[in-house]
Specification:
The chain is mainly α. The protein has 24 helices and four strands. The strands form two sheets. The protein has a two-stranded antiparallel sheet with strand order 1-2. A two-stranded antiparallel sheet has the order 3-4. The longest helix has 38 residues. The termini are far apart.
């Protein structure tokens, strides 16, 4: 794969630049039309274009249902989740391929990406500052949704003879629903999820992350702005080198990248907030006012709510099922324990990182600054950081590249498992080649179309994934009660009083 892209880059350099750019523009125009059509189908709204999309109602309902059904496990088990991630319960002899921390890092690397940077700016630009409040609400509800999905992913995973693991919605849909007498429905939903999963990882995460990171890097290094195909070729080559090693290599890379990129971004955001400290109360007031005020951008209260939940779904992926694939590979014999680890993801991704971005964009006034007219997504967020320091965007460009790269390699693993489910392990090289090609296409396609297509394909995964989780929620509740009683009654887990039922 690496050789192919080197040859492609060499060939491109020999072409007339005008001819090559015309070719790239034709690719962008074709994709843009297709993506607009898909977006209107997936986000069909009740009450017209500015109404409530049915898919958003589906996600909100799922988060509310699971939160009450599992008796607010997102709050009760928070400390326990941290203990598990710290390695308190790690056992290298248990079945699986990666540790609890590596599974969390892999799943986070797939969600903590440019959705946290570009997506938040898009949500505020369309739905107003109030959208960030609804993102937070969606993140808190999504913690329980993630718990249910990843518990099921562990419960119904397959451990092969060589020790490798395959799990995720495909397996809990087919096997789990068969247990409750819905075998045919389970198979149909499993196939639908696997197909959408392949499309989602290729045409959503990969395209979006490559596109937005290319825009950011290009704003810092003009060479890449004029030649996006060069950037696409470089990233595609790096991605190919990592994903060929499978989940163990991906988990190792993710475990190294995730703490670094989150640390860089966290410190940079705190710097901006500290520089505008006196404006923090006003920014918070603006968020709450915009969340409920009828004069909010694009649809008032509904517009703010829709954009908040829409961007949160794209950012933390709660309800979409992908995280269950990563957590299925964790070394544990306790499905609930891994589900509890997974509930940390929406908290870190949405409640912390997305809110940092929102505060930065709002507190600097970048979202309604006439000087930044025409900027969108990641470039708008970068401009907000640039109001404090001219060189801060350059530092952030490094973090943004890591965000994008880590998301792409994690998505590649998700898509690979989906591919294996539909086809075979022997043919998975085909998917990897397609993934590498998608990185290149994303770098040269119009950003507006990419963002819309990303939402449409990725959120459509919530239909089979959440339906299966609804139908199997009774099994998860029973597993949770059993886990709680065992660890509370025999003294193994004396630190987890939060898990006790009232």
């Amino acid at each position: 794969m690496t050789l192919k892209f080197v040859l492609f880059a060499t060939l491109a350099l020999t072409l007339d630049e005008t001819t090559f750019n015309t070719f790239l523009n034709s690719i962008s125009a074709t994709f843009s039309q297709l993506l607009e059509t898909l977006d209107s189908i997936i986000f069909f709204s009740i009450g017209g274009p500015e109404g409530m999309p049915l898919i958003v109602i589906w996600l909100i309902s799922g988060g509310l249902f699971f939160t009450f059904r599992m008796k607010f496990i997102n709050i009760r088990a928070f400390k326990h989740a941290i203990d598990v991630v710290r390695g308190k319960y790690d056992d290298p002899d248990e079945p699986g391929e990666v540790s609890h921390f590596q599974a969390l890092a892999t799943a986070l690397s797939g969600t903590v990406g440019l959705g946290n940077i570009a997506g938040v700016a898009v949500a505020i630009g369309i739905g107003g500052p109030g959208a960030s409040l609804w993102m937070t609400v969606a993140g808190l509800l999504g913690m329980t949704t993630k718990f249910v999905e990843c518990t099921l992913g562990q419960k119904y995973r397959i451990v092969r003879a060589d020790g490798t693991v395959a799990g995720g919605p495909m397996y809990y849909l087919s096997s789990g629903l068969a247990e409750i007498g819905q075998k045919t429905l389970g198979r149909v939903l499993a196939v639908a999820f696997a197909f959408l999963g392949i499309c989602g990882t290729l045409a959503t995460t990969t395209l979006f992350q490559s596109n937005q990171s290319g825009a950011v890097v290009g704003s810092i290094v003009p060479f890449f702005a004029d030649r996006p195909w060069v950037y696409g070729s470089i990233v595609a080559t790096l991605v190919g080198l990592v994903i060929i090693g499978g989940i163990k290599r991906i988990a190792t890379v993710a475990a190294a990248i995730v703490p670094a990129m989150c640390g860089i971004y966290f410190l940079a955001a705190l710097w901006v907030i500290a520089a505008n400290f006196m404006d923090v109360p006003e920014a918070i007031a603006t968020i709450f006012q915009g969340a409920f005020a009828p004069e909010a951008v694009a649809g008032g209260f509904v517009g703010a709510l829709v954009q908040g939940f829409r961007r949160a779904a794209f950012s933390n992926e709660a309800g979409l099922g992908f995280a269950a694939i990563a957590h299925a590979a964790a070394k544990t014999e306790e499905p609930v324990r891994e589900g509890i680890v997974a509930l940390l993801e929406p908290f870190i991704d949405t409640v912390i990182i997305c809110n940092l971005t929102a505060i930065v964009v709002i507190i600097t006034g970048a979202y309604n600054n006439p000087e930044f007219t025409g900027l969108d997504g990641a470039t708008l967020t970068l401009a907000a950081f640039g109001t404090v320091s001219q060189w801060l965007p350059s530092i952030l460009a490094i973090a943004i590249f890591l965000f994008a790269f880590s998301s792409i390699i994690s998505a590649a693993y998700y898509g690979e498992i989906c591919w294996q489910y539909l086809f075979s392990e022997q043919s998975q090289i085909v998917y990897k080649i397609l993934c590498v090609l998608a990185v290149f296409v994303g770098a040269v396609t119009a950003p507006e179309a990419i963002i819309k297509f990303g939402d449409a394909v990725k959120t459509s995964l919530a239909i089979p994934s959440l339906l299966g989780a609804y139908l199997l929620s009774g099994k998860v509740a029973a597993e949770l009660e059993d886990y709680t009683n065992r660890f509370m009654s025999n003294g193994k887990d004396e630190t987890d009083g939060l898990l006790a039922n009232d």
